[in-house]
Amino acid sequence: MAERYYQPEIETASREQIKQWQDERLVKQVQHVWDNVAYYRKKMEEKGLTPDDIHGTEDLHKLPFLSKSDLREAYPYGLMGAPLKDCVRIQSTSGTTGKRVVAFYTQADIDLWEDCCARAIVAAGGTDEDVCQVSYGYGLFTGGPGLNGGSHKVGCLTIPTSSGNTERQIMFIRDLNATILCCTPSYAAYIGETMKEMGLTPDEIPLKAGIFGAEAWSEEMRHDIEKTLGIKAYDIYGLTELSGPGVSFECSAQTGMHINEDHFIPEIIDPDTGEVLPDGQEGELVFTSITKKAFPLLRYRTRDICVLSREKCPCGRTHVKMSKPRGRSDDMLIIRGVNVFPSQIETVLLNQGYPANYQIIVDRVNHSDTLDVQVEMTPEMFTDNVGEITRRQKELMDGLRSMLGIGAKVTLVAPKSIVRSEGKAVRVIDKRKI
Ligand code: DLL
Asked: What is the mean pLDDT of the chain?
């Protein structure tokens, strides 16, 4: 089937065209920020910069970074680029630590955000014939409102279920023939598990595609979800500070997410030195938003670790692709001096046939870090044969040692004993910080 695009002239534009948009928009945006955001103007002045120093993307590296701590310091209005009377909405992060991030939107900002989400839905095969169930949370979280707006723009019949009440989710999917499901991957896995328990096979489920993001998830988890729901599962990435979902999205190639470069300029930096790294090297993703007016962040450090690739994509889109983020740099655990990402642990578990229901517990005992991975058995594996459980635990411990380079304790637990997530799953309990 021929690839379809929501905004073909933008999504398949030549690299020269994209660069021209970025150059022009960056220069304008820097002036807009200089004129309206005193907080950032001061940062530029401290570096001896004025808007006259920025002629295009080549000069981007001169600009100062913004980080989460700037957002906290400037909370709530300090980074606004438009008068309050021009703003029509806020969205906010879940804010597990410190102050929440509050992002402001003008109507035009919402329009371009929804366009980005519409691009993602069309890339996943969505048309106005589709029924799109949005099971991301609605409210302050950007997942529900973003995909809801994108779904309207595509012309899908939109079912705004929000998250939770899993049996009702399944009822709507079946009764209203939902063809596209939008939610976090961990919630998609839970919906799939519940369907299976209800005795439903993938061909009794009308879904054909899923748009899953907001948390790190492995390729193995993608395969599991695709199999259980009988769909193609597409990744979508974004963050509240930059609008929400739709900063980047996967196409039919499913090998990374195209960044909407007409709105966001990406850079990869060394998280320790701040130095810009060439494409192909892994590092921290930094974004400059060049079209948003109410919350126009320049060089915002996401703390997400990934790689950019400019290889030609078979889907025809020309925008740069980012790899699945391995998780945030602040999700990375340092255990006995070794860097461990929860997604590496997930890969080992799923490769050995376990479900993505696990919890990682880190502690410090006698000045030494301990890593305990609690893993749920599937109902088919469940046994009270101690020998069998010990054998399985050892197999997993060996797999983890070879993936991580350090030892971990594995405890197999009964099916359904780890709490399911309806939004972003909490995988790690780090008792060392408490
Ligand atoms: O999670 C926005 C979103 C909603 C994205 C729905 C996709 C779908 P925040 O709550 O501000 O916004 O969290 C942003 O979540 O910096 C990443 O660390 C992580 N994240 C988002 N999408 C992905 C993804 C929304 N596809 C933070 N893969 C980001 C891995 C992701 N991590």
From this structure: 95
